[in-house]
Design a protein that fits this description.
seven-stranded mixed β-sheet; alpha/beta
């Protein structure tokens, strides 16, 4: 897994649902990069033009609520966003994010301490979230080694494919 991720914060409020993360009219797009061009279009139509690869979404509670569309975290990842930090996530969005290899972190203190545009750095292995702009550190739960490997592989499917190939390799 990447040692750290660094980018500017794009801050949003409570209950950001999957319908605004990726509007339904785009859910038939298969290409991740093409889908990423429409990330957050229903909430912030300028998101993909103002964000830079590596930037990080910071949101309040219940991020990813609504329908269980797996394309929501795929769109975020496809946009070049490196991670999402929130006070809490909808359960299905949380699992879908990990399944497709999008790192997400729960840290109410970080969300309260980060402003839109702040430069932040996240260390996935330790769960440390650094607000470079303000010189403050926050803690999120670190991913266990298994989940770090799953995210590093790019999600559940590539992880399983890699493990199966390792099992078939001659000893």
């Amino acid at each position: 897994m990447e040692k750290s991720m660094r980018g500017n914060a794009h801050k949003y409020g409570k209950n950001v649902d999957t319908d605004v993360i990726i509007p339904g009219k785009y859910c038939n797009i298969i290409d991740q990069a093409e889908l990423g061009k429409h990330a957050l279009e229903g909430l912030d139509p300028e998101y993909t033009t103002k964000m830079r690869p590596g930037d990080i979404i910071v949101a309040d509670t219940n991020f990813g609520c609504g329908s269980s569309r797996e394309v929501a975290p795929i769109a975020i990842k496809g946009s070049g966003t490196s991670a999402v930090i929130a006070k809490s996530f909808a359960r299905i969005f949380y699992r879908n994010s990990l399944n497709i290899g999008l790192p997400i972190f729960e840290s109410p203190e970080a969300v309260d301490g980060i402003e839109d545009g702040d430069e932040i750095e996240v260390e996935p292995a330790s769960g440390v979230i650094r607000n470079i702009t303000k010189g403050r550190d926050y803690q999120a739960a670190a991913f266990p080694p298994f989940m770090q490997s799953l995210i590093e592989a790019g999600g559940l499917q590539p992880y399983v494919e890699k493990r199966l190939a390792e099992m078939k390799a001659p000893a």
